[in-house]
Amino acid sequence: MTPYDEIATPTEMRADCEAVSRRLEQAAVRATRPAPSLHFDEQPRESGKREIQISEAAQRLANALHLHLD
């Protein structure tokens, strides 16, 4: 392959440019949004903790490794 050979067709390159343009527009919108607050007073007070499910297979594996999951 010579340096003058095209790797992609013009149609593919155009589609790539359009996709990049859309991504740049999204990045510009996100970059101009205000940053989230770092002040303690503005943080949520209570947040629920998620339930962790341990499958029977994970329990058997943990027991075989002498890791006790309760």
Describe this structure in words.
The chain contains two helices and no strands. Helices cover 46% and strands 0% of the residues. The mean pLDDT is 85. The longest helix has 23 residues, at 10-32. It has helices spanning 10-32, 56-64. The N and C termini lie far apart (62 Å). By secondary structure, it is mostly helical.
List keywords for this structure.
2 helices, 0% strand, 46% helix, 70 residues, mainly alpha, flat
Distance linking N and C termini: 62 Å
Strand content: under 5%
Which bin fits the share of residues in helices?
40-55%
Report the order of strands and helices: HH
- What kind of oligomer do you see? single chain
Question: Care to count the β-strands?
Answer: 0
* Contiguous helical run count: 2
Q: How does the helix and strand content classify structurally? A: mainly alpha
**Unreliable segments (pLDDT under 50, ≥5 consecutive)?**
none
What coarse outline follows from CA principal-axis ratios? flat
Describe the largest sheet.
Answer: none
Quick check: average pLDDT? 85
Radius of gyration: 26 Å
The gist of it:
With 70 residues, the protein is an all-alpha fold. It has helices spanning 10-32, 56-64. Helices cover 46% and strands 0% of the residues.
Chart the SSEs and their pairings.
Layout: H1 10-32, H2 56-64
